[in-house]
Amino acid sequence: MPFVRQWLAERYAAPVLADLVDPAGVEVAVVGGGAPAGADEMDALPDLRAIVNFGVGYDNVDVEEARRRGIVVSNTPDVLTDAVADLAAFLVVDVLRGFTAADRFVRSGAWARGQQPPLTRDVRGAAVGVLGLGRIGTAAAERLEAFGAVVHYHSRSPKDVAWTYHSSPVGLAAASDVLVVLVPGGAGTDGLVGTAVLEALGPEGHLVNVARGSVVDEDALVAALEEGRIAGAGLDVFADEPHVPAALLGRDDVVLLPHVGSATTETREAMGRLVLDNVDSFLERGVLVTPVG
Ligand code: NDP
Fold first, then answer.
1. Which of 152, 174, 242, 289 could form a disulfide with 200 if both were Cys (CB 3.0 to 4.6 A apart)?
2. Residues 55, 75 contacting (CB under 8 angstroms)
3. How confident is the model at residue 183 (pLDDT cuts 50, 70, 90)?
4. Does the interface predicted TM-score (ipTM) exceed 0.95?
5. Any idea which UniProt keywords this protein has (predicted)?
6. What does the pLDDT look like over 194-211, one tens digit per residue?
7. Which residues line the pocket of ligand 1, CB cutoff 6 A?
8. Looking at the domain assignment, is residue 292 inside a domain?
9. Same domain as 173, residue 144
């Protein structure tokens, strides 16, 4: 987010942390790219009063520790919902229709050699399970419904929607042709999608993860793919970014993206403006525009 850094430098002469000579007096820290903001970082900034996170997911911030110290935290909800929902819906369509695999097929010369790509599956009529029906999950479900998919979902509580609710991730996976993960990262969802959920998804089922790598047990995913216990996956996020498990790189039944859910110029600028609004509001009035918790 170089432009946000530039805006902050122009507006507040704010230094980047690496260039900070004297940490005393720093009241607001802007955190981007999932950089950690835990007890160590808070210790290093003794006068910190607010953490402004560039991103809607704030599993990189130790919110409990911040609260304990009287430090408030904000994120960037809503402004990225459409871009991320587009990606989630795209990955669902892609794991069913195999478009990016077909692109690789053309580039490999296989088509020119007279081979035919395999037949794929209709999106219309496919059961799509949204794990985490929040802002992005709802927007993704609306898009997929327009494609003719049948939407199911699980959140910790049912929502006021017409889609079919399942009271557990395993139950949702069992009812889904494609399971789309859109819960927040963090301790509450660590490894939520493990062997049991993948077993329930089954050999014809696909997993799409646009949430956080930590939500999916990556070893269990690799094993399920290698043993044919699920059919394929579309992944935008990984446990140890930017490292992708080597076992996934050569597989044609997985689609791999470099965490690009919100990566459009318009969306990143809107996120940057909301970051600035939070900084301005906190410094002028002592309140954040989009606080978390
Ligand atoms: P929301 O908070 O609006 O939605 C999250 C939903 O998950 C809530 O509706 C919540 O419902 C549900 N949920 C939370 N914990 C659990 C749980 N343990 N089990 C089941 N459901 C749960 O967030 P957004 O939709 O705005 O964002 C979702 C996530 O998407 C972000 O936190 C971020 O990690 C990820 N993201 C990824 C991006 C990318 O580039 N790939 C970009 C932006 C976001 P309930 O409380 O009823 O359980």
1. 174
2. yes
3. very high
4. yes
5. NAD, Oxidoreductase
6. 999 999 999 999 999 999
7. 56-57, 77, 80, 84, 132-137, 154-157, 182-185, 188-189, 210-212, 236-237, 259, 261-262
8. no
9. yes
